Amino acid sequence: MGDFTLKHIAREPLAGAAADGSKPPLLVLLHGVRSNEKDLLGLAPMLDPRFFVVSAQAPIAMGPGAYGWYHVEFRPEGFLVNDEEADVSRGMVLRFIEELRQRYPVDADRVYLMGFSQGCIMSLGASLSNPKGVAGVVGMSGRLLPSSLAHVAPEADLQGLPLFVVHGTRDQVIGIEYGREIRDTLSKLPVDLTYREYEMAHNVGRESLADVSAWLTARLDSVVR
User: Fold this and answer.
1) In the chain, which ranges are continuous DSSP H helix?
2) Residue 81 bridge partners (DSSP)
3) What CATH number does the domain located at 8-222 have?
């Protein structure tokens, strides 16, 4: 099917999941720093079986089997981010989504993003800059980059954009204050934001994943076809 902007693994919907024969919704998974496209794919069996799932690999190699969307240093005073790399990766995510729409047999109007940690940062950045390109976003244990906020789309385009953001109160990598900053910042925009905190560290907890799965299923069920 030709080259894609990002290396990825695709998993088709489970047999019989779309009884009406319609094209399946697309769920794009974006992993965290120093991980790879195999990481979040393990969550797919716990999500709605109607999804055509694509798990993408970030473009920057950081070691054997380790990739990232941008380089970042964890310093006592905060994060030191390579904003130029982050901006390039955000553009790559958006191009990749369009490629998936065109080359896979999916419903182009039902494209969802789901990211963890740095993948959450990319998911939020991409969707807020091009909200018409996604039907909904799940952001897990991430934050908002100040550089990404410079590319936020006009409020008219953001109207009603479904966002589900989760964060752990015991997160020692990206502290809970960053999750609350997402909540406070996005609450000022006309998006449809759901924000929840869990008693967990920097990981995908069982309770949070169950809520994420339920939210995604509700989004699919709410679409009038």
Assistant:
1) 83-103, 118-129, 146-149, 155-158, 176-186, 206-222
2) 72
3) 3.40.50.1820
Q: Domain limits of the chain? A: 8-222
pLDDT tens-digit profile of 165-191?
999 999 999 999 999 999 999 999 999
Q: How many helices (H) and strands (E) does the chain have?
A: 6, 11
Asked if residues 126 and 92 have their Cβ atoms less than 8 Å apart, the reply is no
User: ∠ CA(28), CA(32), CA(38), 5° rounding?
Assistant: 60
Angstrom distance (rounded) from CA 74 to CA 87: 19
Backbone angles phi, psi at 83, to 5 degrees: -65, -35
Q: What angle do CA 86, 90, 4 make, to 5 degrees?
A: 120
Using alpha carbons, list the distances in angstroms from residue 155 to 68, 100, 180, 186: 30, 26, 21, 11
Residue 214's pLDDT band, with cuts at 50, 70 and 90, is: very high
pTM: 0.96
Q: CB-based contacts of 207: which residues, under 8 Å, 6+ apart?
A: 198, 200
